[in-house]
Every structure is written in structure tokens, then in C-alpha cells.
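[SOLVED] Need 3D model of a two-part complex

Original post:
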Amino acid sequence: EAQVTQNPRYLITVTGKKLTVTCSQNMNHEYMSWYRQDPGLGLRQIYYSMNVEVTDKGDVPEGYKVSRKEKRNFPLILESPSPNQTSLYFCASSLGLGSGNQPQHFGDGTRLSIL
Amino acid sequence: GEDVEQSLFLSVREGDSSVINCTYTDSSSTYLYWYKQEPGAGLQLLTYIFSNMDMKQDQRLTVLLNKKDKHLSLRIADTQTGDSAIYFCAESSGNTPLVFGKGTRLSVIA
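Solution:
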């Protein structure tokens, strides 16, 4: 089954304790992306990756890091989490950006609470 | 930068039609999308339309595009309680990341 898998689904942690949210897709997609969703703000893109070893900042990259060492994985790293990073995070992937009929497949989300 | 605007809430009675509206600013938008987010889940692509089309129909869903006014709408016929969700409008010029609206929460009253 084609899917984007995020882990963990829920995490409560404390300020400053490094954490990683993993994202894996099994569709051989080149494009992967991370979003955060906050009430009243909709979806905002954090980082995206067009292919292995190619990553770019989205609209709200501050406080986050990503890596794309393999095609299937795109982890989101919070080196020193702060309470303003409490949010619902989504990973998404698609074949590419070159054609409109390539939908983005979304994971089920990771709810992070930073105390 | 590009911007996509949607009203935040819509409430309709079961069986009625729902119309969710969206405006965008990027005149180079090539692809326009509607995504649905059910509670506790990620976004699911509902439908999309190319900028050279005026209308697209898919079962209960009708997408209308007014390119001159940069206005996109999603009509859901015979709205059911299972249609209650957040609906996101998004646009792309084809080689740029999607830009999403803030989402419209549709509530269906039985």
C-alpha cells in the first residue's frame, strides 16, 4: 500500500531536548516536504527536498533541520525545541513538481507538545 | 509572495449544496487543488484543475475556475455528514512548492 509514514504520532517533551520526527515513503517519490499546521494559520511549509541530498527552506524553517540521505526518508530534526514549536506536523511526498496531476501524499501527522 | 485566501467556516444542512470559495494572487498559477482533511488525519487530494480549464466535475464535486478574477470554488452536491472536514485550496505554478490557503471548516448539520 502506498503510504507516507511518520513517527511518532504524538510526543510530549521539554524545552531544549533534541528530537527527531521520522518520515518514510514507499512510492519512490523524489519530492518530500514538511509542514506545520497551526490554528488560524493553515499549513506552512518548513523545508522541502527535490531529491536526495537536495533540500531547501520553506516559509518557516527557523529552529528546524532536515536531511535527505536516502530517497525514501526525510527526517525533521529539532535541535533545541521551544514551546513555539508545539504544533501538528505533516510530511508529504510526490513524484515531483513538474506536473499538476501528481498529488502530494500526506502522512497522518505528528502532534508535538514542547513544555 | 503568493497568497491563497479562503473563508474559515461554512455550515450547511445535510442534502444541500456546499460552495467553498478561494482566491489566489499568483497570476502564473498553473495548477489549483482542493484537499480534504478529516479529523485526526492528513490531507487527501480531492481534485485539481489546470489553469486552462473553466470547470471540472467529478461525481458530487464541481470545481469552477475564474482565471480573470483568480477565483476558485468547490461545490459539493447533496452534502453528507461525512463531508464534514477542513477543505484546503492550494496553487502551484508547476515547478514550485504548493501554496495552501488556511482551510475552510465545513460543518454539515443533520
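Edit: Residues 59 and 77 of chain B are 9 Å apart (CA to CA).
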